[in-house]
Amino acid sequence: MKIFVLVKRNILTVIFGLFMVFLIAFSKNNLSAAKDGLTLWATCVVPSLFPFFIATELLNYTNITSIFGKLLSKIMKPVFNIPGEGGYAFVMGIISGYPVGAKIVANFYSNGICTKNEAERMLAFTNNSGPLFVIGTVGILLFGNSTIGILLFITHILSSITVGFILGICSRFYKTSSKKLPYNNSKQEKVSSSLSNLGDILGNSIHSAISTVLLIGGFVVLFSVILSILNRLNIISIFSNILSYFSIPYDFSRALISGIIELTNGVNIASSIHAKAISTNIILCAFLLGFGGFSVLLQVLSIISKFGLSIKTYFLGKLLQGLFAAFYTLLFINKFSIFNMDIPVNLNGANNIPIFNILIIVFMLIFGITLVFVNQRKIANHNF
Known about the structure:
By secondary structure, the protein is an all-alpha fold.
């Protein structure tokens, strides 16, 4: 028992110490991985996200959130059980991509616009991948097909809405506190700003956007190096071989594990797998896009931790979103021929996804919903 307590207390020290050792031991591979991460950040993340970050910051100096609050309160409250301002977080999260939705929700909570429970639920479905990444990077660049990107983006949005709806239903079963943080008066000053202080507004917005994009860059490089170390230690290969005993091909299990750790690497591997049933590649990417990976999860945690918001609901919500995204993508591929790009093998439909896979996905959906209900109960009992 004492050994367990000792290990628990020093687990982070051990992990960080080993990370330092492996950085030195595999320095050549890690240097290459870090360069690749920086290249990915500079060529994909910065051009696609940085302008949106600036635009989001600029909009924060206007009364756009109150406009959304008035216009969408009759929709957001009954459907998602959140304030109407949540519509702004959802729209900007969808347009801009990770982690804009989380940043907006954190600002809502810090300014007393929503309660802690509402903020934690909003995090789970307003922080999403943007169209430039899903359609542009995954669809056009990786798969070489814009139709695939459009399919993935449609199911991504549908799954996020579904998660928000489910969490809204869950919140009505438990009594939660309506306590909010005190309203930030400085925010009101920003809202009433005019052209006379446009220079300050632009400067502050760019400064904040740079801070956010640098944060993302740090995570991209860090997790590129982590994946390099895991590959060098053959850890990913070991887990992939274990999953192969459950009839999961090695390439797909490798893409799944890599994507759970870091999204971009996972979808890159998944899209490059040669298979006649390309629908399997697409469905796997749908799950990874919905879940987002631990890299994005830690980005969100770095934003919300200073406000005392829990990451539990976000984690379970994104897991559920990934499962729904995979399920919706499966349905679209089977129901709409325009999205079915599998190479036919024979006239008996041997290339179709078997019903067993559908049952597995349904089971995972039920399991995910159960986890969300359990988590909501814990939040109600412990935090409120």
